[in-house]
Amino acid sequence: MPAGMIEVKGFREMRRNLAKADKDVAKELRTTLRKAAEPVRRDAESNAAREITNIGPVWGRMRTGVTQHEVYVAPRQRGRRGKLRRPNLAGLLMDRAMQPALDAHAKEIESEVGDMLDTLVKRWAR
Fold first, then answer.
1. Which string of DSSP letters, residue by residue, matches 60-75?
2. Mind listing the pLDDT tens digit for each residue in 35-90?
3. Which member of 63, 64, 72, 120 lies 3.0 to 4.6 Å from 37 by CB, making a disulfide possible if both were Cys?
4. Would you call 40 helix, strand, or coil by DSSP?
5. Which one-letter DSSP state was computed for residue 52?
6. Distance between CA 120 and CA 100 in Å, rounded?
7. Half-sphere exposure of 28 (CA within 13 A, CB side)
8. Where are the domains of the chain?
9. In angstroms, rounded to a whole number, what is the distance separating the alpha carbons of residues 110 and 71?
10. In this structure, how many other beta carbons lie within 10 angstroms of the beta carbon of residue 40?
11. What's the maximum distance between 2 C-alpha atoms anywhere in the chain?
């Protein structure tokens, strides 16, 4: 598994089946996943400002996203190929801001996602 990831086995299949079963459940799942990523985004922003010199206000801002396959935190700003003044910035953001934020919140994320899955199972068991 690549660095900076928490793997949930069967996540893709679960999302696909939930989307087929109930639109409201799929929407709730997306909302819960985005909420679980929020502390990581917040800490990654503060880590970037604190740990990376001269990052500026634009590159230190982060966004969260939820796709069919993953939940992610990434910089809001997107670079232009060949135009970066700091080609090492992606590595610095990962090593000094995003990975430490994920590590600090890994247990919380596991707990929130586990609770959400338990809730979904209880609903379906009725």
1. T-EEEEE-SS-EEEEE
2. 999 999 999 999 999 999 988 888 899 999 998 778 999 999 876 666 656 778 88
3. 64
4. helix
5. S
6. 30
7. 14
8. 11-111
9. 13
10. 26
11. 57
